[in-house]
Amino acid sequence: MKRVFATAAPLFAIVAVFISACAPGPSTTPGQPAGGEQGAQRSSEPKVLTVAIVSELEAWNTDLIRASRSGGITLLHHIAHNKLVVETGAFAWVPQLAVEQLSIEKGTWQVNPDKTMVTTWRIHPNVRWHDGAPFTSDDLMFTFNVMKDPEIPNPVTAPLRVMQSATAPDPYTFVINWSAPYVDADQAPWLTIMPRHLMEDAYKNDKAGFLSHPWITTDFVGLGPYRLSKWERGSHMEFTRFDQYFRGRPPLDTVIMRFIPDETVQVAAMLAGSLDAIPASGSGTDVALEVQRRWEGTGNRVGGNLSGRFYDVEPQHRTEVARPLNGLADVTVRRAFYQAIDRDQLVDALSQGLGPPADSWFFPGHELRPQIESAIPRFPYDVTAAARQLGEAGWTRGADRILVHSQTGSPFDVQIATQREDAKAASIVANAWRAIGARVEEFPITADRLDDLEALSKSPGARMGSQTFFNMYTNRFHSAGIAAPGNRWTGRNRSGYNNPRMDALLDQLVATIAPAERLPLHRELLQEQMGDLVVMPLYWGYDSYFVAKGVKGGSGDGWNFFEWDKE
């Protein structure tokens, strides 16, 4: 793959313009300047870490509220809250509030002869909420009851269907009884822990208004190393050290999380010394490389890694709302439009080739990749093959080179809906589709439109988005997760995909624990999902990060935020 690295000279011309806009407030301490001139922070000074992310939080509990977890939102959760177990940057799961991971050998994960399961979580005894109240298994029991309550719809389906009941036999033990095996039970799925002492009254007395409870939306009280002390909407959040944190005294006095939606402004603020870290930047590989050259020898760091998410085009699968008629809801048309996209060119344009093309949800380097490679259906870039398949589906180009359907006489008018961060990729895809005769509208999903879940679910053409490995083999495209009026359009299967054979494979996969038995299911699911092009995988995300000299940590989603520090 040809990789050409451009420079980012225009960035530095605008640094001065943004310095005043990016200057820290009176309670912040600026980060290390780009040249490294600032000396180490004196021990008598408070340790203040100032970090920037793209998005502002919509809801603290995204298990209950369908809200974005991208744009750095996950970092906020790691700062202020903890879970039973947490996913590391290497895509492994380690205990956090739990004393240890579930284990078949130790008897905390039991699979019975009748295919039921019992999982037993043991939690640390000295954990406290930020208001000082003790965290016990009663909080887990309360969370479980809320998530299982049919009067409080939530977007979760697959694991909750088989979580039959739960008990809290003592303050530090929580037991879940499962009606069927579930392979990711050791990830404590969909149990974002809620404080019983703060929310039980609202749950009992106002279920209709429960999802608007201040804990979910604004006044968060968590279990993490830092507690929320201030929230200036549209600007920043401040977190202060929680001295009663069960792992010991957190190293920082204050964490300031600034919301800067423009990555160029983020980098300018970093260069001006107003930030200590940008954990995940979408500013572009060319900018990252130029900053790296500028910082050489200063002790400031620029790096990057695969994000663990692949970006895709998700077609509308509901035939009653998909447009045009006989368009992307037809698998032959989907295959043609997919083969019209040059994914190598796409990743060169977006990440200088560092975020490789995607052909499925198995990322490069995944431990199973060598064993599933041959099962992945191939759709190489081939506009001739695309034209042939479109002809088979009744679409041919007229004198004006626009695709027209042989039966309806209608042109191929299609919409690509996209959020701002995916706009560049959407334009590249749109141009590829225009080249084969489609008339493409690039439709921006603005912040106000994100709240209209029904409209998002009924997007008539296709939507740019991203998926994870976990999404693709749980409820993301299971028919039980279809967004519909019954779940207030919160279902994660937004595009309405319905395939009984795939449902059966998904159900079987999550119920199969032994790795050797899972492998043929992964292969068959790949053939089914990718053969049908439920989504069109495009490329793997690549996140750059920027960290000032003297900062420990500062990259990734912050799963180990308790260890982040600053000299």
The name CATH uses for the topology of the largest domain is Dipeptide-binding Protein, domain 3
Instruction: Write the CATH architecture name of the largest domain.
Output: Roll
- Could you name the CATH class of the largest domain? Alpha Beta
Mean pLDDT: 88
Q: pLDDT under 50 segments (min length 5)?
A: 1-42
CATH superfamily of the largest domain: Dipeptide-binding Protein, Domain 3
Shape: globular
Strand order across the biggest sheet? 11-18-12-17-15-16
Domain module tally: 3
| Largest sheet properties | 6 strands, mixed
Strand content range = 15-25%
Number of strands: 20
Structure class: alpha+beta
The tally of helices reads 18
Binned, the helix content reads: 25-40%
Description:
By secondary structure, this protein is an alpha+beta fold. It folds into 3 domains: 9-57 and 224-300 and 548-566, Periplasmic binding protein-like II (D-Maltodextrin-Binding Protein, domain 2, 3-Layer(aba) Sandwich); 82-214, Dipeptide-binding Protein, Domain 1 (Dipeptide-binding Protein, domain 1, Alpha-Beta Complex); 308-542, Dipeptide-binding Protein, Domain 3 (Dipeptide-binding Protein, domain 3, Roll). The chain is built from 18 helices and 20 strands. It has helices at residues 9-13, 15-22, 73-80, 137-148, 158-162, 196-205, 214-217, 263-271, 285-294, 331-339, 343-351, 369-372, 383-392, 423-435, 453-457, 469-472, 500-510, 515-532; strands at residues 48-53, 85-87, 93-95, 109-111, 117-122, 163-170, 173-178, 226-232, 236-241, 254-259, 277-281, 301-315, 395-397, 403-405, 413-418, 439-444, 462-467, 536-547, 551-552, 565-566. It has a 6-stranded mixed beta sheet, sandwiched between helices. A hairpin with a 5-residue loop joins strand 2 (85-87) and strand 3. Helix 2 (15-22) crosses helix 8 and helix 17 runs antiparallel to helix 18. The two termini are 41 Å apart.
